[in-house]
Amino acid sequence: MTEYIMAKQNGRNIPLEDKIFGISRLANEMIAQRGKDAVINATLGSLIGDDGKLVVLSSVVEVLKNLTPIDYADYAPIGGIPEFKEAIKKAAFGNYEPKCFTEAIATPGGTGGIRNTIANYSNYGDSVLTSDWYWAPYNTIASEIGRKLTTYTLFDHSGNFNISSFREKVEELMEAQDSLVILLNTPAHNPTGYSLTLDDWELVLEVLKKAAVPGKSISLFIDVAYMDFAGDGEEYRMFIPLLDGLQENILPVIGYSASKTFTLYGMRCGAMICMTPNAEIAEEFKRVNEYSSRGSWSNCTRASQVVIAKIYASEKLLDKVNKERKSFRDMLVRRGKAFEKAAYEVGLEIVPFDAGFFASVLCENPDEVGKKLQEEGIFLVPLAKGLRISVASIKEDDCKMLPSKIIGAIK
Ligand SMILES: Cc1ncc(COP(=O)(O)O)c(C=O)c1O
Hints:
By secondary structure, this protein is an alpha/beta fold. It has helices at 19-34, 58-65, 69-73, 82-93, 109-121, 137-144, 163-176, 198-211, 258-261, 279-296, 302-313, 315-346, 366-375, 396-410; strands at 40-41, 101-107, 127-131, 148-152, 179-185, 217-223, 250-257, 270-276, 358-362, 378-379, 381-382, 386-390. The protein has two domains: 19-57 and 319-410, Aspartate Aminotransferase, domain 1, CATH 3.90.1150; 77-316, Aspartate Aminotransferase, domain 2 (3-Layer(aba) Sandwich).
């Protein structure tokens, strides 16, 4: 008997409830019964302040409040308003000015860029490559549009980026397909917090340059959703010049999200930005992705685009937003470091961590360990190979305390 009544499965595996929201619901139910102090909800992917409330940049809200009715009521062009496209390129590239051709297309959050990249740069039925630790919606997005997600092993036995596994998978897929989309979430990867080093980047690009033989192509989607909360903005953008001037059949696409950077999660704003030495490929990027946008969500929210355009039009405003964000970023970095240090002290094995909203712990039977922790009022997300901890949504003191609780539950 099929699980569906009227709906068609179409190759998808659709759960009854989203795992993360399901666990978060349990956490909220326990809060209702036992009070907030009895529960640590480290499931969510949004930054929560020490006061337990969502962090919202007041400098961004101020701009939002000053918009005109036209700014939020009118349609935006499918690809985004021109001032936004310029602003979002500056936001993504920082001080670096690419020498290649770049085109930006507005997307609803970073998610839209992932969808459009897979839709336009792979064939139906193709495999799309990412690491074995990955953000679950990558799979949802790929299966929604008739593609399969396949993975390489992110870390080797010494905890370094596993370039051999990456190379092996790229070569295997390039043998079987005439094009390949790779989703690379760095810096501050979800769910591990890992950031590729510049040495990792050199190795990755070496593999791609070799694999992209004439007649075949590779699209490298760099998901930088957490880049602006990783640490120093310029330092974490040092990989970008390496993407400038690659051979034409390798297309880097930067997936930029305004959700975290500008705390505009619910306004659904982001962009996909291509970098290519070929003007025609840039022009084609604009054409095919605008077409896909039209056929899926049409245009994106105008208000958030105007807000970002206005911020980048005023040095004073930009400075204010950057300073405000920095204070919250420092708070997040302190939490991550506190968790890492406490894990080290109690001997809890965590997956290599650098920065960002999440850290992960390797363990057997993650679902069971997760349930055990729930009995103590601790809510984490079980993944295939371990547990994800959102340091973004808990206090620094809880970050210090969690590793000993986790190790207790594992034992
Ligand atoms: C790895 C990763 N990529 C992209 C996104 C994009 O999110 P949004 O579409 O809300 O900007 C997220 C958000 O949680 C994420 O974790």
